[in-house]
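Dear Dr. H.,

I hope your travels went smoothly. While you were away I took the liberty of generating a structure for the chain from your last submission, since the lab meeting agenda had it listed for discussion. I wanted you to have the full record in hand beforehand rather than looking at slides cold. The sequence, exactly as received, is reproduced here:
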Amino acid sequence: RAQLMESGGGSVQSGGSLRLSCRVSGITPSKFAMGWFRQAPGQDREGVAALDVDGGTKYADSVKGRFTISQHSAWRTLYPQMDNLKREDTAVYYCAADGVPLKDIRWKPNIRWESIFGVWGQGTQVTVSS
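The corresponding predicted structure, in token form, is as follows:
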């Protein structure tokens, strides 16, 4: 069955870097993008970055130039490399699959991504301190 499992979260100081990992199993790369999302306490889940099988990417404005999404080993692992982290990046980070094609993704507020992407990991906490 389809499973996603995140790891690599932790605490880091502002300006530091982290690389999260998402182990992917039971999912065949398809026309649907895979992505990273995050949710801070009391806030809606928001999109961070997405990647498709053609190598196309989309980043939320808040992380452009700081985060890089990639995949490894024929989509068995999905990464975001997160550099120059800021306090506002503090959140639980989730990877997700079985959603929509990359061209249909719009990083806008008030979108319930949990109802659009069908497979989610359990999340990993990232805490950025000043």
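Two observations you may find useful: The chain has a mean pLDDT of 96. The chain is about 0% helix and 45% strand.

With kind regards,
E. W.
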